[in-house]
Design goal:
With 236 residues, the chain is mainly alpha-helical. The chain has helices at residues 15-28, 40-47, 51-64, 82-106, 108-128, 131-147, 152-172, 179-195, 198-217, and strands at 67-70, 74-77. It has two domains: 15-77, Arc Repressor Mutant, subunit A (Orthogonal Bundle); 82-217, Up-down Bundle (Four Helix Bundle (Hemerythrin (Met), subunit A)). A two-stranded antiparallel sheet has the order 1-2. Mean pLDDT is 87; it is low at 222-234.
Length: 236
Amino acid sequence: MPGARRLQPVRREPAAISIAQQLTEAIMDGTLAPGSQLGEAELAAELGVSRGPLREAMQRLVQQGIAYSEPHRGVFVTTLTVDDVRDIYVARTSVESAACRLILRRDPQGTAERLSVVHKAMADAAKRGDHAALSAADTELHQMLVNESGSPRLTRMAQTLFVETRMCISALQDKYQAPDVMVDEHAEIIRAMRDGHEERLLRLMDEHMQDAVQRLTEEPGTAPEDGAGAAVATGA
């Protein structure tokens, strides 16, 4: 047909990418624990894949820093230290603060409305005591915030940071704030964005991140300074 657009073959997602995504999810939720070895034979059998794409997938994890390779031993899930936790949140503060500045110049009210939809899901999960849904909504809200900045580079930088954050929280989830506190903190951030108040928004974001670092790195048995009870939820 003259002038007709030619159809292109449908491209399937490379197996290595799909495998890497599954392994990443297993690392984030703690199924593959920090320090555990990613055994090729076991994983290949469990995933029903050949070792070639599995090795490629594991190298992707090594490049992202969520796994590491030891010569003659294999690939292992990264164990995050207290210094790692602090560094992750320093980077996240920079990325998400930059995203907030861009949003305030683009569409703060529209972004606040879209974030409010996810925030409602967070609040509903908190009321139900559904900690898995609460954590998922928290991650989604922060991912959406960065995506709304319109910066592909900030989005790419944030992806690995969010994976590392989930790793922290999965290992240390008994150290974070109570669900109602988490819901309230995010509500304040969204309100400041809707109001277009840059100074308050950046201050709240910084305090939100600092609070997470304090709780995730405090010594066992140490009570949070704000008097919050035992942590039962994940967040930030």
